Write a sequence for this structure.
């Protein structure tokens, strides 16, 4: 129903009441703004009561206005341009209390992700990663930061983890040329979906690899290709993609995989701690060599204590 919402509104428009036609016309012409308005705000904008807006949603077959609103948001969010995103943010957030509003929206997305993520799919994804010969990780544009995060930690756990770089489609396919049924690939993308990420997952699937998709809903082109679909709620804060909930899901995935490989992980970190100490990777809290004045101050303090 979500895919055809605008078409359904247009078809039924002639049978609507005067107030409902006002709502219909506004949604058809300004759907990107209407999707993020409360029933009260939408009613005020078009000049009808809140109850008229609620009845409009029922008329279209929804359980209520929030249900219709969510469907409209899902339908349009991968179509919005950067300029439209900014306009939506102006409507949704405004100028006041930006910090509170953005953080509260992020917390709500984490709660939604906790509800939506399929536990069986999550467990299957963990097993597929643990049993893979090679783990490929693909994420383009803003999702590339999430891909780098996963790859960084998985490279501490597994001997062969490959972060796919997407400078061009040709280079991408060269990097996954040898993927096969012994491997797993993790693809991450949110609206607007990356064509290269979708293509990489489709190719890996055709070669028999286990495909894990981290994306926002079951209608995502990544989810349709995946053996394991992990649903993470994303949103936009102006022109910025809000990826807090996907990152939280990814944290859980890394921890779950780490628990499965705990013995190997302990050995790896024991070796790393020695390397970090030998090569001064981390600043020692009791070694102020970077600041001679601080070093002298600490030595004087020790003398005074004696």
């Amino acid at each position: 129903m979500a895919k055809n919402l605008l078409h359904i509104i247009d078809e039924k428009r002639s049978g609507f009441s005067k107030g409902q036609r006002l709502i219909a016309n506004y949604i058809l012409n300004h759907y990107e703004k209407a999707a993020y308005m409360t029933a009260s705000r939408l009613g005020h904008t078009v000049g009808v009561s809140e109850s008229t807006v609620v009845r409009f949603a029922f008329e279209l077959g929804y359980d209520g206005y929030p249900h219709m609103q969510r469907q409209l948001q899902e339908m349009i969010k991968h179509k919005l341009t950067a300029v439209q995103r900014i306009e939506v943010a102006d409507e949704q957030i405004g100028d006041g209390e930006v910090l509170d509003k953005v953080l509260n929206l992020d917390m709500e997305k984490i709660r939604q992700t906790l509800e939506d993520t399929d536990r069986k799919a999550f467990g299957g994804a963990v097993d597929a990663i643990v049993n893979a010969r090679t783990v490929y990780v693909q994420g383009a544009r803003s999702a590339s930061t999430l891909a780098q995060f996963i790859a960084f930690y998985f490279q501490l756990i597994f001997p062969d983890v490959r972060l796919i770089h997407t400078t061009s489609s040709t280079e991408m396919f060269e990097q996954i040329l040898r993927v096969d049924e012994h491997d797993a690939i993790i693809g991450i993308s949110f609206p607007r979906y990356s064509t290269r990420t979708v293509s990489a997952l489709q190719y890996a699937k055709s070669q028999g690899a286990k495909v894990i998709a981290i994306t926002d809903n079951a209608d995502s082109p990544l989810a349709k290709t995946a053996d394991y679909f992990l649903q993470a709620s994303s949103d936009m804060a102006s022109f910025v993609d809000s990826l807090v909930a996907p990152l939280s899901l990814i944290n859980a995935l890394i921890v779950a995989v780490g628990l499965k490989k705990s013995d190997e992980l302990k050995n790896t970190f024991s070796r790393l701690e020695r390397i970090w100490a030998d090569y001064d990777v981390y600043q020692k809290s009791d070694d102020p060599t970077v600041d001679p004045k601080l070093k002298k101050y600490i030595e004087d303090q020790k003398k005074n204590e004696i």
Summary: The mean pLDDT is 85. The two ends are 78 Å apart (CA to CA).
